[in-house]
């Protein structure tokens, strides 16, 4: 008899995360007989994604029962796995996270996971996810909570501080880094294995190997990189030259943690392109749902994104699945970083749980670079858990991206007011 489970997806109205998850869920029969419950506060987005799930489930003959609801507590009854991909007033507040610091003279990138933007993403997002996790704790305490929401490291760390929920963060950043490397190597991504350890969006590749033979590809990368187009991912390459390892995932994300990150491109997220793309994607989804448009081929194949379905299948069927990258509490997995820090490392998932894989001690210079950001992340989480403006100011003043105490105070006042409805103590 095949094991089955109940999977609850909170934030299922998210077209990007939802479609990626659907690709993985409905391109396999490993979870046949299981129930997928989609949850969102936006009924229209929820209806669209539920209808799309039904189409892809039938097309893939995946054998999953689809449910939908706006009541998350009802959805959690009997859940074995809970996925969370939420954001609060995403584009409007994210724009402020980038534009307000820039107005006050802070040069930075993206404004999502590091710098002032990373702080305010944490301040407004962590309280809501703590509420969700406490519902999990009360209703389905044995479930694995899989977080897909940014800022990943801070969310996972915050949940460990105030709940007993088993939590795993998942991100596709390591695969994005592999794409950049393969452009330089001139190799197909399926031919290359990468191993990495560090912080989310600040992970360092300890090994790059040819999948078929296990051959070390770092020497070839160094050779090819020396003559590659210098305009291609310049920040990662400068750090590669200085520290000897390749950093994930991309210059815009990595640049969020560094005072010189803007040198590779001082820009925020491309909201205009994102919003245009969402309109196109919704139109395509509607056409697939009503049958007026064919299902794109890649929608019926596994994604190269987060590995949530592999984690679920590994645990459900005790298959000892190797997961290239996940965010967990350190507890010695990366020697030299605080035990109670959220780190990103390889994992093995089976019926006994999720098991982090230690790749040993990172080079000293990289550890010191990570330690700076570790302190920022720990203090920003404390600020969010206490709903404390005083701690938030301290978090800004120790952040290497912030080079002015006057700017820090002005940014704090302006962004605190914009985020005030969502900031509160979680303790």
Note the main attributes of this structure.
single chain; 427 residues; alpha/beta; LDH C-terminal domain-like; 6-stranded parallel sheet; 3-stranded antiparallel sheet; 15 helices; 12 strands
Task: Tell me what the structure shows.
With 427 residues, this protein is an alpha/beta fold. It has 15 helices and 12 strands. It has a 6-stranded parallel beta sheet, sandwiched between helices. The chain has a 3-stranded antiparallel beta sheet with strand order 7-8-9. The longest helix has 25 residues, at 115-139. 49% of the residues are buried. Keywords: Carbohydrate metabolism, Cobalt, Glycosidase, Hydrolase, Iron, Manganese, Metal-binding, NAD, Nickel. Pfam families: Glyco_hydro_4, Glyco_hydro_4C. The record marks 112 as: Increases basicity of active site Tyr.
Relative strand content: 15-25%
Profile the largest sheet.
6 strands, parallel
Portion of residues within helices:
40-55%
Q: Which segments are poorly predicted (pLDDT under 50) over 5 or more consecutive residues?
A: none
**Series of secondary-structure elements, N-terminal to C-terminal:** EHEHEHEHHEHEHEEHHEHHHEEEHHH
Radius of gyration: 21 Å
Figure out the total of helices. Answer: 15
Shape: globular
Give the CATH superfamily of the domain at 6-89 and 115-171 and 275-317.
AglA-like glucosidase
Report the strand count. 12
Specify the CATH class of the domain at 6-89 and 115-171 and 275-317. Alpha Beta
- How far apart the termini lie comes to 43 Å
């Amino acid at each position: 008899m095949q094991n089955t489970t109940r999977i609850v997806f909170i934030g299922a109205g998210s077209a990007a995360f939802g479609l990626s998850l659907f690709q993985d869920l409905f391109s396999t029969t490993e979870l046949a007989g299981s129930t997928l419950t989609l949850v969102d506060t936006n009924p229209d987005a929820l209806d669209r994604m539920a209808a799309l799930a039904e189409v892809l489930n039938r097309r893939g003959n995946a054998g999953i029962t689809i449910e939908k609801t706006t009541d998350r507590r009802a959805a959690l009854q009997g859940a074995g796995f809970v996925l969370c991909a939420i954001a609060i007033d995403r584009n409007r507040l994210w724009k402020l996270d980038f534009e307000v610091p820039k107005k006050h003279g802070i040069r930075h990138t993206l404004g999502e996971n590091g710098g002032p933007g990373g702080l305010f993403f944490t301040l407004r997002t962590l309280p809501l996810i703590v509420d969700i996790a406490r519902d999990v704790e009360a209703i389905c305490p044995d479930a694995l909570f899989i977080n897909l929401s940014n800022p990943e490291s801070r969310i996972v760390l915050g949940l460990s501080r105030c709940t007993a929920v088993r939590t795993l963060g998942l991100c596709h950043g390591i695969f994005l880094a592999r794409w950049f490397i393969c452009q330089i190597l001139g190799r197909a991504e399926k031919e290359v294995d990468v191993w990495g350890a560090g912080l989310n969006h600040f992970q360092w590749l300890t090994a790059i190997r040819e999948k078929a033979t296990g051959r070390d590809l770092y020497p070839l990368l160094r050779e090819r990189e020396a003559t590659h187009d210098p305009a291609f991912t310049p920040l990662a390459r400068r750090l590669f030259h200085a520290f000897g390892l390749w950093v994930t995932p991309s210059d815009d994300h990595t640049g969020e943690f560094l005072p010189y990150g803007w040198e590779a491109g001082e820009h925020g997220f491309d909201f205009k392109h994102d919003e245009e793309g969402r309109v196109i994607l919704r139109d395509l989804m509607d056409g697939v749902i009503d049958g007026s448009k064919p299902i794109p081929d890649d929608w019926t194949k596994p994604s190269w994104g987060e590995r949530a379905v592999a984690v679920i299948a590994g645990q459900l069927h005790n298959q000892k699945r190797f997961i290239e990258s996940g965010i967990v509490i350190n507890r010695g997995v990366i020697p030299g970083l605080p035990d109670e820090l959220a780190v990103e490392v390889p994992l093995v998932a089976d019926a006994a749980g999720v098991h982090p894989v230690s790749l040993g001690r990172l080079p000293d210079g990289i550890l010191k670079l990570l330690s700076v950001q570790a302190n920022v992340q720990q203090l920003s989480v404390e600020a969010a858990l206490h709903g404390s403006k005083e701690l938030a100011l301290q978090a800004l003043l120790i952040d290497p991206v912030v080079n002015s105490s006057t700017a820090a105070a002005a940014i704090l006042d302006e962004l605190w007011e914009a985020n005030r409805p969502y900031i509160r103590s979680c303790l």
